[in-house]
Amino acid sequence: MLVIRNLRTGYGNLEAVRGVTLHVEAGEVVALLGANGAGKSSLMKAIVGLLPPWGGEVRLSGRAITGEAPWHMISHGVVLVPEGRHILGDMSVAENLLVGGYHNPDRQLAIGEVFERFPILKSRARQPAGTLSGGEQQMLAIGRALAARPKLLLLDEPLLGLAPLIVRDVLRVVRDLRDHGVTVFMVEQNAMATLGVADRAYVLETGEIILEGRSEDLVRNPEVRRAYLGKGYKEVWE
Amino acid sequence: MSPLFERDREALRADQLEQLQLERLQALLARLRRNVRRYRELLGDARVESLADLGRLPATTPENLVEAFPYGMFALPLREVIRLHSTVGPDGRQIVVGHTRNDLDQWGRLVARQLVAAGVTGNDVLQICFGGGFFGQALGYMRGAEVAGACVIPEDPFHVEYQLDLMKNYRATVLITTPSNARDLVEVIRARRMDPQALELRALVLSRPVGPEVREELETGLFARAFCGFGLPEILDPGLAVECPEHNLHVSEDHFLVETVAGELVVTTLAREAMPLLRYRTRVAAQLECVKCPCGRTGVVLRPGGRLDDRMTVNEVPLYRAQVEQFLAQTRIGRQPFALSVAGRTLELAVEVSEDIVGDKMGLLTDLKAVLESEFQARFGIVADLRFTSPSRKPA
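Predict the joint structure of the above. Result:
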């Protein structure tokens, strides 16, 4: 579904993503792992047009979407759940979902499905979104994306800052989405938790992919520990 | 269509395979640059943007592996390596091949692909007979058989007679062995006037490719369908390719990026962890052919040829000329010209000695012949027939 070839991007003179090639098949959950500053979020932003690509290609279902404006992505069926969630705090939960489904003519149906999937959001539909807990806000951010009925859901650090119990809930949601045929590409630092739900994963280090593989293989790979733990682990690396 | 063990990997479309290979090649280069000094120096900032760029990357030779002895080619710290295999390099020195836990699991799955292509299921009883001398290969098949869910007989009697008894008693359905050992079994079956159909064998997995005549001889003699494995001891043996029921040897291209350079098979390992190799010059002649195979596998078909160096195989044991040279240099004969030839399972070794020694001390040479032949067998596991020739008669 998503095919990326030699994608490069960065900020000013700094090249943050240095020729990344990866793919996500329809129905897969694929994770992009790496330490802080590895270039994960920059890659995600380059996919959806929030950062201009310096080179390379992004294709969705065979069609080139490289460098297209972010607001075009939704019409291609690509929806990003950004890092830090960015929910609209002064608006109610229901209004947030309506905003998410703005382009979707079947949004009422889709929002109904979101409420079925996340009963907690239904019970708080009229509550201002800013009053929700961190975990609930993450559910709302994912629910808001699902209201657009995406073909490809991009999750940027969905586990960041969440309590361990809430992490488990979010991962359960990701697993459930996969079981219902939603394609998910998620960027995460929490490697071990993420590998528990992803079918495959890539490991990014200083803007380059250094590993690709099935999650069950990567769980045991020493490079995953090194990339995940960052520079400190190099001291014990011979 | 025969069953495929990993259909999602063995039957990739061309565009899927190209994407996967490019991803893995780029990741491999990043790892090699970070973790292997030799490659870091050679690669510099070299990048690949498509598989067409592969030809610009530096090659790795068997000599490089020898120079890196023992762990210079490892891409991970030794504590991550859980098994060390070894093989002999071009000058007779050892090459060490390391495996991580994932490497061994991967090996099991690659070998299971071959076994499933040979029709192996959980109902089969597999007898792995390598006569004790090919421990590494036997371990690979053992792992593959377990992954495929078959029942394995781990006993590996040295004597062919016992192997045959074992096969009968355990009602083995699949025999995994070397072509030489399979021939021995056929001879014993004939000598005993046994009907091979009385055995329960239905598949024979040979440790290396054989020609059509040998295949037919073994299939008839053992009344079983033959499949040939293919591997390289410097990488994985077996496990590089899968022979399908159509007798096409499909390379496992999701793991190995293959090319031919001047008729030589060149292999890049895409998923090995402990000792990944970039453009390894295998010294094996080969042709690669894109075939639309009815078996459903899409991996390029490998047609392996002979060796391109002076490595010979005597009774399934690899031997380099340099090893013989080193052996002779350590004996009383010293550094004398010699010629090698293989006659059946014996190595014929003709050594030039000066005429006065031949003439005056023939008795001494006869004693020396017996001692050296015995030492040769002890060192290399090869039966040698040593002849002394005079310098005027060039060794054949």
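The interface with chain B takes residues 3, 5-6, 19, 21-23, 202, 205, 208-213, 217, 220-223, 237-238 of chain A (CB under 8 Å).
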